[in-house]
Amino acid sequence: MGNTQFDPRPLATERTLDPTRIPAHIAIIMDGNGRWAAARGLPRAAGHRAGLEAVRRTIDACRDCGVRVLTLYAFSTENWRRPADEVAALMRLTGEAVVDEAAELVRGGVHLRLSGDLSALDPTLREQLEQLVALTQPNRNLVLNVAYNYGGRAEIVSALRKLAEEVAAGQLAPGGINETQVNAHLYTSGLPDPDLLIRTGGEQRLSNFLLWQVAYAELYFCDVFWPDFDRTHLLAALADYQHRRRRFGGVEDE
Ligand code: FPP
After folding, report:
1. What is the pLDDT of residues 12-32, one digit of tens each?
2. Mind listing the domains of the chain with CATH numbers?
3. What is the model's pTM?
4. What residues are in contact with ligand 1 under a 6 Å CB criterion?
5. 210-251: per-residue pLDDT in tens?
6. Cα 139–Cα 143–Cα 148 angle in degrees, nearest 5
7. Does 79 qualify as catalytic in the annotation?
8. Catalytic (active site) residue 7
C-alpha cells in the first residue's frame, strides 16, 4: 500500500452530484503541458497537442453536467515570451483545432466566444476563429469562451480606456461609471462571473487570468498535468465545489 489518504466522500459521479448546485461558469488554467511532455521525453508541442484532447474531454463533460459557460486560458499575453517554435506550434495547433473541431462544436450545440486581443494574431487564424464564432453563434448548450492573447490587466485597462472615451465624448458622466459599466466593456460582457476556477499542474496562482471576474469564484487547484485531466478530475472538482459554502461577503444562511 502507498500512502494514499483515505477520503471518506464517495467517488464523485454525475449521480452523486447535486444537479441544483452545478457551477454555471467554470474557468480553467490549463497548466502542465510542458512538464507532461518532458516526463515522456517529448517536445513541449506534443504536450500542447495532448492538451487539446483534454480540452475535448472537458467540453463534453461540462456539457453533460449542465455547466453553461466554460472559459479556457489557451494563450496569455505573456506566452509570446516563449521560444518562437513553441509559439508557432501553439498557433498551428489552434488553426488545426478550428478546422477539425468546427463540426463537433456545431453538433454539440457549443457556442464559441473569444476573450483577448485578436489584433496581434495572424490574419488568417483570426479570420478562421471569427468565422467559427459566427457559425456557432446560435448554439445554446454551452458557451466555450477561449481566452486567447488574453491578459487580465490588459482587459481592465482596455475597458477603462473605452469608458474614458465615452466620458470624453460626453456620452457618460464620470459618476455613471459603476461595476455594471465596467462589466459591459470587458471581453466577457454578458457572461456570468466564474463560480469555479480550476488550475491544473500544481501551481497555485492566477497568472493574470480573469482578475476582475473571479472576485467571488471558488478556487480549486490540482496537481494533475492538463493533458491527463479527464472527466473524473472534473467531477472531483465539482464535488469539492459542492462542499463549499459561498457567502459573497455576507453571512451563512441558517
Ligand atoms: C500551459 O502549460 C498551457 C498552455 C500555455 C497552452 C494551452 C493550450 C492547449 C491546451 C491547446 C490549445 C487549446 C485551444 C483551446 C486552442 P505549460 O506549457 O505552461 O506547461 P508547463 O508549466 O508544464 O511548462
Report:
1. 777 789 999 999 999 999 999
2. 21-151+192-214+233-240 (3.40.1180.10)
3. 0.93
4. 30-35, 48, 51-52, 55, 72, 74, 79, 93-94, 97, 146, 201, 226
5. 999 999 999 999 999 999 999 999 999 999 999 998 888 887
6. 125
7. yes
8. no
